[in-house]
Design a protein that fits this description.
The protein is mainly beta. The chain is built from 11 helices and 53 strands. Helix 5 packs across helix 6. The chain is globular and about 95 Å long.
């Protein structure tokens, strides 16, 4: 195995040439495409913390991260006692033995790093007045390194010296580093520093010792996000390895990876989100957004094994609540089972001040697609074991603390029902977990006595929300999950996996073994526990239109039918993807099938017990792509599409209708929060015409009548009054920016507006009269717009539209 230093050195060459920008995106939209190749934004080297000598933290981190992901282990020396006859005291050796024993759990081949344990203070023996005695400090480090007698990766002479802990000045640190370079123990060993607590101080401490250290380090327990990034940029510009040797939240390495940080280590324990990030960041980054002022960030990675994960994080002590919207540009996907959809919103909570009400929140999100996608989980369920078909229950319907949890035949009792709900984001720390509470007693499924070992018993206990009462749901297939303990990372299993004679057998935790005894289906409490699949849906057929396909089939007759799943592909030899789930009717219009290419479909029936039928026959349908009305919104007390293509809009905010100009009603947008969102695939056409009646009520400049795109740099929009013009239409992509100007709209008057694209130009009409035109070098289809808004802009700072809109129509041909 290559040494961590060699791994880092191999990555230094490109960093020498790369100076990262000092201004980062403040965008809270995280755009990604699961089919993009992605970019390398990894942290290749990770450490394990044992200077907080916790057996639980050590084994839990290794359980979640895996020993293969640990490149070094950090141990400590402490200066709170003097040397005894020039040697370490017996108490100090005992303290170091505890850390060494934990470090060896990670593996004997892992190098260690040496740093000062500072919380116990510095004894006067190591001081000259208020200054550190550099020679004695180095002697202490030499004695500690010799006592550990283990290969070292690097050494940190000081830890958080800006905070104090009794450590000395920059000048003291410089003198110590100078002596270490002459020491027979440390002369060939890389040094790191200054490991400031406050990242605002990182550059000044690094400047003092830059001639001695091989790693530039800082923590981020105080200081601004911008200064953290500036420090990383500074190190990258000089070709120096940057490291955060004490990350307290995923936001720190997530931002670090974006700006060239090459090594990190978790303070405390690495649980689910942190361990997933360690593994995922070795793959390719697909999307990223940050909010420096709020000290938050979000990202999307494709893991080395091809999974796609989303991450959000917020500073442990300085975060401000931020909303991130994950946006899939290329296809509909599922976010932790929610979908199919293009957007998924996560609010990452912050506090009210420095270390005030700060939940230290972080989360990982599974992003999936394909034929078999997990169901969403949030409700009341029966937990059914795949090996036995039996359900998890509280033994003898006990309602007391300590009642055992076993498996048994289903009988419909409340002692076999479980309320399974996701953690609240403000609960504290990682909120990727679920609570599992008995519907009978309200008590939690609990790892009894906080047992970390294989065979740990599961009982019910008062719901404290502790780590031994939190659970991870890992999807397997066909509605089955692995259920893992947050506390130990081990898997919920039945002891006896036979289908007969195992009634009442115990449920415990075990190591992953791939067995069916560790798989559980979460069946809603209103459904029967049975495994008979519905009949195959019959007579699937397609009605083909210009820009859509409508599917029809014969209804199934099962009384417990939950709905139908629809699957689509553009290649009959390629995998199908679940494009609609639990459809209740026997007809479905696929509005996304709007190109003149073959689409292939099949369907399956699903019952309330999550049993799925065999697939229907596969049929093919090819829209003809002829001139057509793509979408029509008459706003007669609805935002549904009246074209027949199924491009129904979604209204965000309060739905309101007033007097219109065509028909009776028009849609009122309040200028504060209400807007429409149109389907992501609506505008994927070479030529387009967009028309509507608009009654603007005035107000701020740059309101958006419509704005379609994938962010402020790739969009097209129409505003009733631009800041430096009147009515204005803009289409832009990358360096191309086409602008059409016309007279400002008069408030409180109806105007018929049209934007028309043909092969060569774009034109703007008011009341049927051409007002402006320009050669067209960017077509709407070039934008591949996903965020298609009526009444708001791509930029969250753009004012919302205030007024009425009526009879909005979109065609795939120029109407003039």
């Amino acid at each position: 195995m290559p040494s961590p230093l060699k791994k880092l050195t191999a990555l230094l060459a490109p960093l020498v040439l790369l100076v990262f920008p000092l201004v980062g995106a403040e965008d809270r939209n995280v755009f990604f495409d699961v089919d993009d190749p992605g970019v390398k934004k990894s942290i290749p080297t990770w450490g394990l913390e044992v200077t907080w000598p916790s057996y639980e933290n050590t084994v839990r981190t290794l359980e979640f991260m895996g020993a293969d992901e640990v490149d070094f282990v950090r141990v400590a020396f402490t200066a709170d006692q003097p040397l005894v006859d020039g040697q370490l005291s017996a108490e100090k050796k005992e303290e170091m033995d505890r850390m060494a024993s934990l470090a060896l759990i990670a593996g004997k081949d892992k190098p260690w790093t040496l740093m000062p344990g500072t919380e116990s203070g510095v004894n006067s023996y190591y001081k000259n007045g208020t200054e550190i005695d550099a020679a004695r400090w180095v002697t202490l480090m030499e004695l500690a390194a010799n006592y550990y007698n283990h290969p070292f990766f690097f050494a940190e002479p000081f830890n958080e010296p800006d905070y104090g802990w009794g450590q000395g000045t920059r000048e003291n640190l410089v003198e110590i580093c100078s002596l270490l370079k002459k020491s027979p123990v440390f002369s060939e060993l890389p040094l790191a520093g200054g490991s400031t607590l406050n990242c605002d101080k990182a550059i000044s401490w690094h400047y003092a010792i830059q001639d001695y250290v091989d790693f530039g380090t800082t923590h981020t327990l105080a200081g601004s996000c911008s200064n953290y990034i500036a420090f990383l940029n500074h190190l990258a510009s000089r070709g120096i390895v940057s490291m955060n040797p004490e990350a307290h939240n995923i936001v720190e390495p997530m931002i670090g990876a974006e700006y060239g940080m090459q090594a990190s280590m978790w303070w405390g324990v690495a649980e689910w989100t942190r361990a997933n990030f360690v593994k995922a960041c070795q793959g390719k980054r697909l999307g990223y957004a940050e909010n420096r002022r709020n000290w938050t960030a979000a990202s999307v990675y494709r893991t080395p094994v091809g999974e796609v994960k989303g991450f959000v994080g917020a500073s442990e002590r300085m975060a401000i609540t931020t909303t991130y919207k994950f946006i899939s540009k290329g296809k509909d996907v599922y976010f932790d089972g929610h979908g199919p959809q293009r957007e998924y919103t996560v609010t990452i909570p912050g506090g009210t001040g420095y270390w005030e009400n700060q939940p230290n929140a972080e989360q990982v999100i599974d992003i999936a697609w394909g034929e078999d996608v997990q169901p969403t989980i949030n409700g009341q369920y029966q937990l059914v074991n795949r090996a036995t078909g039996m359900v998890m229950e509280v033994a003898e319907a006990g309602d007391f603390d300590g009642a055992n949890i076993v498996q048994n035949l289903p009988d419909g009792g409340a002692h076999q029902h479980w309320d399974i709900t996701p953690f609240d984001a403000r609960r504290g720390g990682d909120f990727s977990y679920f609570s599992i509470l008995s519907s009978l007693s309200g008590k939690a499924a609990d790892v009894y006595n906080w047992n970390l070992e294989t065979g740990a018993d599961i009982r019910q206990w008062e719901n404290f929300g502790n780590s031994n009462q939190a659970w991870i749901l890992e999807y397997v297939e066909d509605g089955y999950f692995h259920i893992r303990s947050r506390w130990s990372g081990k898997y919920l299993e039945v002891i006896i996996a036979e289908t007969e004679g195992s009634e009442g057998s115990n449920i415990q935790l075990g190591d992953a073994d791939g067995s069916l005894a560790q798989q559980w289906r979460l069946i809603p409490v209103y459904a029967a526990v049975e495994f008979d699949a519905p009949a195959v849906p019959e007579r699937l057929s397609a009605e083909i239109y210009q820009v859509s396909v409508t599917l029809n089939w014969t209804a199934n007759l099962e009384p417990d039918l939950a709905g139908y799943n629809l699957y689509r592909s553009t290649d009959p030899e390629a995998p199908f993807e679940l494009t609609a789930r639990n459809v209740q009717e026997t007809t479905y219009t696929d509005s996304a099938a709007n190109q003149s290419i073959p689409y292939y479909y099949k369907i399956a029936a699903v019952d309330q017990s999550l049993n799925r039928s065999e697939y229907s026959k596969v049929i093919e349908a090819t829209p003809n792509g002829a001139a057509a009305l793509v979408a029509a919104y008459d706003f007669e007390n609805t935002v549904d599409d009246q074209s027949g293509n199924g491009n129904h809009a979604t209204l965000i905010g309060e739905l309101a209708f007033e007097q219109g100009v065509v028909g009776e009603k028009g849609m009122l947008l309040d200028g504060v929060e209400s807007y429409l969102q149109l389907p992501a695939t609506l505008l994927n056409h070479q030529n387009l015409s967009l028309s509507c009646w608009v009654n603007w009520r005035g107000g701020m400049d740059n309101q958006r009548i419509f704005d379609f795109g994938t962010g402020v740099d790739s969009c097209m929009f129409l505003t009733p009054r631009a800041a430096d013009a009147g009515l204005q239409f803009v289409i832009r992509k990358d360096e191309v920016n086409i602008v059409l100007n016309a007279p400002e709209l008069i408030p409180e008057q109806w105007n018929f507006l049209e934007v028309v694209f043909d092969d060569t130009k774009v034109s703007l009409f008011i009341g049927g009269v051409l007002n402006a035109a320009a050669p067209l070098t960017v077509h709407p289809s070039d934008l591949q717009p996903v965020l298609n808004y009526i009444g708001r802009g791509q930029d969250p700072l753009s004012p919302f539209f205030y007024g009425r809109i009526d009879d909005l129509r979109i065609t795939n041909f120029p109407i003039k």
